[in-house]
Amino acid sequence: MVLSRRGTRADPGVGAVRKDGPVTSDRPEPAAGPQSGRSETATDAPRPSAATPPPGAVRRSLAGAARGARAAGRGAGTAGQFAVTQARRATRAEGAGDSGLSRLIELHAFNAAGDAAVAISLAGTLFFQVPTGEARGQVALFLGLTMLPFAIVAPLIGPFLDRFSHGRRWAVGATMAIRCFLCWVLATAVVTESDWLFPAALGCLVASKAYGVARAAAVPRLLPPDLTLVKANARVSLAGIVGAGLSAPLAILASTFGPEWSLRYGFLVFVLATVWAIRLPEKVDASQGEGELVLTGPTEAGRTGRRPRTRIPAAVAFALRANCGPRWFSGFLTMFMAFLLRDNPIGEWRPEVLLGLVIGAAGLGNTLGITIGSLTRRINPAVTVVLALLADVVVATLAALFYGLVTLVLLGLTAGLAQALAKLSLDSTIQRDIPSRIQASAFARSDTTLQLAWVIGGFVGIAMPLMPQLGLGIAAAVLGLWASFVLLSRSGRVSRPART
């Protein structure tokens, strides 16, 4: 008992409990000495982890990453420089660099790149955000207010520009500068939903078509001796396809931040294009000794202060009439499909994707046509233009009877292929049957006629009810009637006129 009491008194707080609560120890805590300090350091201080590299290793890793980034940058720069070098070498081949045609080829690449940026930005705003009825009405109105006066006045522009020493170069530069300004206006209009959206968009279209006419007249003046007109035009067209193909991903990337950013990217592209246009050779403005091609009326000798007038040869007139069919169909498909696929998509496909597939197929067909025309040495232009027109008739009929995704893609592919082959055949006919002194006027007049055919097709596509079988069936019927007119209007075999 005594021992038990002593144990209790000696150590009352170790696990002992009284009636009034727990008993705490009266024994003071031991002072922190050197030994306890060592123990605390050993348990609480952070220890170096095996996964954390020492500072020297981190610096070495960062230095290695920097060297790798510099090497990758040098590799990308070398690859880009090599691509640019090869592209410039291709544009300068066969005397194009000495004649100045290479600058026009590069300019056309810039032109196509800027047009691609504008098209990508407006694809999600002009067609897919505005109500269909309002969009169709405004597009038709501004298309008429802008394109038709241009088509009427265009034949007068060439003689007017010839009175100025740098008229045509500044005219080409003006088409770029106008689109440069309109891209900046559109960048604001798509955000604020301004009323200037449609006028600015159609203004870009007009400037693009005006550039096409001016470029067509410039190619014969820059033609090198070792290159034919067909090859020169094919090379220019191919440069446009390459420029659009390289620019489209950049424009799509910019549009992810908003449609206005792809337009600002287009603004920068057209700034460069304006500079390139002014740097075109002086031969673009040279019109001394040239004549003028007229579609109707008699041939007239040159009078004082006026150029001689030559009536269009029968073979060229036939090729031009045949070309109007595919060009009309291109304008029709552009406007009709833009609104049709928006209101009547196929299955679960989004309208933007469907329109992109049709446009992509048309671009692929255009590329194939240019490639085939460039590589084929012997091609009968008269037969080719007729086959291109008939191909459009057949495929439009198939698309009307079996409307679906496959037939629409086939329709776009055929339309692009037919248009390219028909245009190359027209170029070949002009080169063969028209004297060199009036070829610039011939290309300007033919392109003006084809632009007008595109506008008429666009009007029909806008006015057509959004019923796929009906619209495509009417288009096939129109093309069939036009093909019959073209074939019946050709009287006998066309003889080649003597070149002067």
Largest sheet properties: 2 strands, antiparallel
In helices, the fraction of residues equals over 70%
Shape: globular
Low-confidence blocks of residues? 1-45, 492-500
Assembly state (oligomeric): single chain
CATH superfamily of the largest domain: MFS general substrate transporter like domains
Q: Write down the CATH class of the largest domain.
A: Mainly Alpha
- Number of strand segments: 4
Task: Please compute the radius of gyration using only Cα atoms.
Answer: 36 Å
| CATH-scheme architecture of the largest domain | Up-down Bundle
Strand order of the largest sheet: 1-2
State the CATH topology of the largest domain.
Growth Hormone, Chain: A
What does this structure look like?
- This protein is mainly α and 500 residues long.
- It folds into 2 domains: 97-288, MFS general substrate transporter like domains (Growth Hormone, Chain: A, Up-down Bundle), CATH 1.20.1250.20; 306-500, MFS general substrate transporter like domains (Growth Hormone, Chain: A).
- Helix content is 72%, strand content 2%.
- It has 16 helices and 4 strands.
- A two-stranded antiparallel ribbon has the order 1-2. It has a two-stranded parallel sheet with strand order 3-4.
- A hairpin with a 2-residue loop joins strand 1 and strand 2.
- Helix 13 packs antiparallel against helix 14.
- The longest helix is centred in the N-terminal third of the chain and has 37 residues, at 55-91.
- The protein is globular and about 85 Å long.
- The termini are far apart.
- The model is unreliable at 1-45 and 492-500 (pLDDT under 50).
